[in-house]
Amino acid sequence: MEDVRNNMKKVFGKPESLKDAVFHYCAGCGHSITHRLIAEVIDELGIRGITIGIPPAGCAVLAYNYFDVDMLEAPHGRGCAVATGMKRTLPDRIIFSYQGDGDLAAIGTAETFHAANRGENITVIFINNAVYGMTGGQMAPTTVLGQASTTSGPGRNAILDGYPVRMSEILAQLDGTKYIERCAVNSPANILRTRRAIKKAFRYQMDDVGFSMVEILSQCPTNWKMTPINACRWIDEVMTLSFPLGVIKDLKGKD
Amino acid sequence: MKKVLIQGNHVIGEAAIRSGCRFYAGYPITPQNELTEYMSENIRKVEGGTFIQAESEIAAINMVLGASAAGARAMTSSSSPGISLKQEGISSMAADELPGVIVNIMRGGPGLGNILPSQGDYYQATRGGGHGDYRTIVLAPASVQELADLTMEAFDLADRYRNPVMILADGMIGQMMEPVVFGEPRPRKYDESYVLKGAGNGKSRFIRGLILDALKMEEHNWKLHRKYQVIEQREKRCEVTGADDAELLIIAYGTAARIAKGAIKRSREVGMKVGLIRPITLWPFPDYVIREFSDRAKKILVFEMNTGQMLDDVRLSLGGREEIHFYGRPGGVVPTPAELAKVIAHHYNNNRPPDED
After folding, report:
1. Is the pLDDT of residue B77 over 90?
2. Engineered SS bond to B130: which of A106, A196, A228, B87, CB 3.0-4.6 Å?
3. Are B122 and B266 within one domain?
4. Which residues of chain A neighbour B89 with C-beta distances below 8 Å?
5. Residues with pLDDT less than 70, chain A
């Protein structure tokens, strides 16, 4: 009898740019999906050997246990500064920084803003889950109005706590940024869009276009205290009202 | 080699570039701005040289961290308040065992203080400065020539021990001009295995300071500790002047040591036997030299431009055996040799047996 396996085409598998490790992320978390997408893109572009990742402090601090590419841990918020030092030293390598909302939009705002403004030719993957995940669900700069957290118990109050920060729109104002898109990983369609955005961002870096960032709205069922399904729905029904999805800036070839 | 008249801050930049420094990030702060300006003009003239005027001291040190991990000889500089901001990155570089050179042209503190020469950052420099169990090698030049020599040395030491090295000078040395002969830098010798350049076709690697397992973190701490012990065994340096017959021994570093030399000259002219031990490495501290000469001297006088910080290391070196006097002028005051000579005379004469008075 003929072995049918010989005639089967491999349509799905673990990306080569991921290690044989089990993600430690909570059930339903968007980090593991995003890790996979990045790894698939690195494989597809054939850049595993020249890519260096900069993981943050936060839930993704152990990203070097999962990505099978060289990685350099950055102190909290400093991803874009560390990436700047690396990229300027090794301009032919592909450098991406992977940062959460507290990392990128609070403690590391200055580093992010100025790397963007200098037009550093790096790629930033910005995970926005509207909460400090690893430390247990405190209010983040991106926590939406009315959203409860361990430090905004009754819900974020604009008068007391200020407003959610839209970093993508802010950075898009800077002449140094070339491509910024906000995506989500809460549905198959959005996941595919995110994958395309990540690929475009890496592609732009390979083509020396300049600073690119993909903001990803990412579900955090644990700290939002929701089921994974409800967390995915909450992104569509609530979070995207403050953080609308779509291309915010794309300047390839325009200058 | 040609002798040139050049400012201290410029000398650091020139010596760094000659040593192969190819990445510099800095932020304006007085009294070290001439170094940042020098690097902006000159490091980009050499192949692969990068200058970045960073948005903050924090960003600058983290850029250095990234450049260092990518294999560059990298440097940042600042003055006291800015060095406080860099401590996060210095601690991270120590944890990651990444080489790098940090220049502190000290000014008066605490807080914003002023922009005058001071030595108030001794504790911060020699005790690690940031969080966690670590040390940085600290070099204390006392002349512009020594700034040139020690800057070159700093890059070699950073590579040899894969550790941050701090050059601790002050506004006086940074701002003054003196004749300098640049030495030949040694070719860079280092173990490149830690450098991240992308995995190529091989195994991927990572550099990190986060070690969640307590026993592994403890082992990392002991590993660093063993390295620091080797540095302590090998790298203690100091200059000893007129200490053989000294009845009063001054211990001073950097600008304070220059002032002490002037004061000692005056004291010797009137017959007082006064000598100087000038630590060149502040960490590791040259304790054994101080022990050796203090056995012979009747009296020890520690002189610093602060309220008494190296004083602690002298006390630790002598294990409570000696009476140790201290004279200090903090806050940006630079005492004259004549002023210090009076202090020397006071202690010297008080130390005489009554019948000799």
Report:
1. yes
2. B87
3. no
4. 75, 78
5. 1-5, 253-255
Choose the final residue of a domain: B234, B263, B282. Answer: B234
| CB proximity under 8 Å: A 67-96 to B | 67-75, 78, 81-90, 93-94
Nearest to A111 among B59, B199, B209 (CB): B59
CB contact under 8 A, A85 and B58: no
pLDDT score for A9: 86
- The Cα–Cα gap between B58 and B55 comes to 8
Q: Are strands B324-328 and A131-132 parallel, antiparallel or unpaired?
A: unpaired
Mean pLDDT of B260-285: 98
3-state secondary structure B253-312: CHHHHHHHHHHHHHHHHCCCCEEEEEECEEECCCHHHHHHHHCCCCEEEEEECCCCCHHH
Do residue B217 and residue B157 come from a single domain? yes
Interface test with B, best of A64, A65, A89, A202 (most B CBs within 10 A): A89
Read off the CATH number of the domain in which B149 is found. Answer: 3.40.50.970
pLDDT interval class at B1 (50, 70, 90): confident
Q: Which domain holds residue B226?
A: 3-234
B254 shares a domain with B113: no
Give the pLDDT band of residue B357 (cuts 50, 70, 90).
very low
ipTM: 0.95
Domain-ending residue, one of B213, B234, B255: B234
Quote the number of domains for chain B.
Answer: 2
Determine contact, residues B159/B188, Cβ cutoff 8 Å.
Answer: yes
In terms of pLDDT, which residue wins out, B350 or B42?
Answer: B42
- The Cα of B271 is separated from the nearest Cα of chain A by a number of Å equal to 57
Look at residue B354 and tell me whether its pLDDT is greater than 50. Answer: no
Buried b (16+ CB within 10 A) or exposed e, B159-192: bbbbbbbbbbbbbbbbbbebebebeebeeeebee
Does one domain contain both B57 and B164? yes
Q: CB B197 to CB A93 under 8 A?
A: yes
Tell me which residue in B23, B62, B204 faces A69 most closely, judged by beta carbons: B204
List, for residues A36-57, the tens digit of each pLDDT value: 999 999 999 999 999 999 999 9
Q: Could you tell me if B179 and B221 lie in one domain?
A: yes
Mean pLDDT over B139-150 rounds to 98
- Kindly state whether residues B274 and B251 are assigned to the same domain: yes
DSSP letters along B169-187, please?
EEHHHHH-EEEEEPPPPPP
- Please judge whether A70 and B65 are an interchain contact, meaning their C-beta atoms are less than 8 angstroms apart: no
Q: Which residues of B touch A (CB under 8 A)?
A: 22-23, 25, 48, 50, 52, 54-56, 58-60, 62-72, 74, 88-89, 92, 96, 196-201, 204-210
Is residue B221 domain-shared with residue B73, that is, in the same domain?
Answer: yes
Q: Which residue of A has its CA nearest to B88?
A: A75
Residue A74 DSSP symbol:
P
Quick one: pLDDT at residue A7? 79
Residue B18 shares a structural domain with residue B122: yes
Chain A closest-CA separation from residue B51 CA (Å): 9
